[in-house]
Amino acid sequence: MSVSGITGRTLVVLSAAAIGLTASAAMAQNASATIYRDTSFRGPAVAVESANPNLRLNFPVYSIRIARGDWELCSQPNFRGTCITVLQSTSDLRRAHNWAGPLQSMRPVTYSPPPGGGGGSGQQSLRGMASEYFPAPRQANRPNSARVQACPGGNATSACASQNADRFCRSVGWNGSAYERMETVNRRIYLADVLCVRSGY
Q1: In this predicted model, what pLDDT tens digit does every residue of 53-85 receive, in sequence order?
Q2: Strand 32-38, strand 63-68: pairing
Q3: Residues with Cβ within 8 Å of residue 162, at least 6 apart in sequence
Q4: Fewer Cβ neighbours under 10 Å: the N or C end of the chain?
């Protein structure tokens, strides 16, 4: 694609991808977990310290001990299939998350900015000149407040999530959201990976 053929929307998506790669690199440096075949942290174990799109495990996983970070576990390679987000060490994934067992990819999902870094909103974020990336938007503009639900009080749809992402971005000083995802944590659906911008949303 020529430079002249790149639209504003394309530039926004490219910016989101670049920010995502930067955040992923930071997460990889601050995450560590060990997965176990059996419940109660028993059986064969594998230590994981960064995103792994293909674990090639020949056994199911039913417990995880987390040293640092929050982790997304997926039943298929490349972070597909059934995915759950685990926020703390869990001795029985089947009971806590209704996890079926097969695990083929996993990655850290929380970005912790370095001291003094992040955006001006008081939340975990990565801020640039024309946009700000929020991996896990939180309510009331405080780092320890509850996460923003994708569609509170209704079915989680992409249109609803987009509207709430726009509303969130406006609450932290931007004009709207150019990119957002939905993440399921403990059977609740939250906004994730929100890219707030001035224009092009």
Answers
A1: 999 999 999 999 998 888 889 999 988 888 888
A2: antiparallel
A3: 177, 180
A4: N
Could you report the per-residue pLDDT of 120-164, keeping only the tens digit for each? Answer: 444 677 887 788 888 888 876 555 578 899 988 778 888 899 999
pTM for this prediction: 0.47
Give the domain ranges of the chain: 3-27+112-197, 31-108
Within 8 A by CB and 6+ apart from 173, the residues are 120, 121
Question: What is the residue-wise DSSP string for 107-136?
Answer: EE----PPTT-S-TTSSS-EE-SSEEEESS
CA–CA distance, 92 with 48 (Å, rounded to integer): 18
Helix/strand/coil for 12: helix
Q: Which CATH architecture has domain 31-108?
A: Sandwich (2.60)
Distance CA 73, CA 166 (A): 28
Cα-Cα-Cα-Cα torsion 65, 67, 72, 73, nearest 10 degrees, comes to: -30
Question: What is the distance between the alpha carbons of residues 94 and 115, in angstroms, rounded to a whole number?
Answer: 37
CB-based burial label for 103 (10 Å; 0-12, 13-18, 19+): buried
